[in-house]
Amino acid sequence: EVELSYPEKFKPAALAGQTAKTTLKLDSVREKHVPELDEDFIRSFAIESGDIEEMRTEVRANLEREMKGARLTVLKTQLLDQLLKAFPELDVPGAMVHHEATQLQAMQARRQNQEPDPAQAERYMDAARRRVKAGLLIGEIARQNEIKIDAARVREAVEAVAETYEQSEEVARMYYQNPEMLRTVESSVLEEQVVDWAIDNAKVENRDMAFKDLINAAAQSRKGL
């Protein structure tokens, strides 16, 4: 039995700022330890050879893929922030914003294993308006500068996603057979190409970042996309 002090903003409010005796039941005590880098441990990561060098190669490839994606996310967010600041008066169709808000709400519901509720879409209107504006601006940059979707990069993007699954060939085939899934990849690739174009044509300041800092920055950036 211990005495706990609850924060001023604690919920339920009846306990906020209060001190109360609380009974805790200890179920187990565990201690973590670093496992041996033996063949059994390596095979547990689906590396059948049990070879440590093969594992290191795969780990490095995964980290590099994660780093590339994080870098692109941060750059894209910075680019969109500047574009939206440059065109604050840009007006967008309400129907597009509402559709995007509905999509965002459905995505969030799926993440939480819940049924989508279109009535909750209003909560996502601000984020949806930003996404629609950003999409139109990126599309206009691509149009004015004749940036076409690079089929080779689309193929690379599909393969990169497929490689994260055991049945990679089936996953890749599924993407090419599903027009909506393929359009999503193409849209993402076009955004990457616009980011590349902006880097080549804008005043850019390079900054070194530790891997962990880059990943954290990307996580924060995704909240704004």
Summarize this structure briefly.
The protein has 225 residues and is mainly alpha-helical. It is built from 8 helices and 2 strands.
Features:
single chain, 225 residues, mainly alpha, 4% strand, extended
What does it look like?
This protein has a two-stranded antiparallel sheet. It is extended. The protein has eight helices and two strands. With 225 residues, it is mainly alpha-helical.
What order do the helices and strands come in, and which of them pair?
Layout: E1 2-5, E2 19-22, H1 39-43, H2 52-86, H3 94-111, H4 125-144, H5 151-162, H6 168-177, H7 179-201, H8 211-222
Antiparallel strand pairs: 1-2
Helix pairs in contact: 2-7, 2-8, 3-4, 4-7, 5-6, 5-7
For the biggest sheet, the summary is: 2 strands, antiparallel
Order of helices and strands: EEHHHHHHHH
Strand order of the largest sheet: 1-2
Looking at the structure, what is the overall shape? extended
Instruction: Give the number of DSSP strands.
Output: 2
User: Which residue ranges are poorly predicted, with pLDDT under 50 across at least 5 consecutive positions?
Assistant: none
